[in-house]
Amino acid sequence: MVRFENVGMRYGMGPEVLRDISFHLRPGSFHFLTGPTGAGKSSLLKLLALSHRPSRGLVTLFNREVSTLKRDDLPGFRRKIGVVYQEFRLLDHLSALENVALPLKIAGAKDEQIYDHVAELLDWVGLGNQVDAKPRTLSGGEKQRVAIARAVINRPQLLIADEPTGSMDAEMGLRLMHLFLELNKIGTTVVVATHDLGLIQRFGNPVMYLKDGQLSSRSAASIPDSFSEANG
Q: Domain ranges in the chain?
């Protein structure tokens, strides 16, 4: 599903923010990504989401090496990937329902199939009474739930979530984590970036630990206490 081999990444002529990153994710696996602030987590997610190219090394997604992809190939590849961004990236002129429906519309689904499915998912994430609400009228936590619903609506092969529970209460955060787990059970590969060590420890999935631009595998119990204190 995903393979990184000796990957480095920099912005412009600046120093490398990721160095010698190597890992692979099996189809249907579920990993947490964590580490201190500024470690490079957002940069790694950009590579996974095909919104940035590595400065060196090989990135392979869906059995294709990313550097060989042509511009015309990218939309089809990106439709296989669901992304939950920290900044939400909702379209302000569309309702919550219309924002969530976008991936299905792009994929060519019929309207009658789209709206029943979208309304059901919005109800599941606690927004059943706000399907017609525009983003400017929603709280941060509500916007985040709309963004999550949009990312999962078409059952992507790869789901990337950047601090997906950061703007909501613990109960709703757990509810949405269980949504990710259900997607994972039907085959979606999931990567959740989070500073919430309690969340990581509760679910016990493998952990990718990023520090100073370099990646290692950790168990939840082995993440240093100093990291918890720094991000608490």
A: 89-154
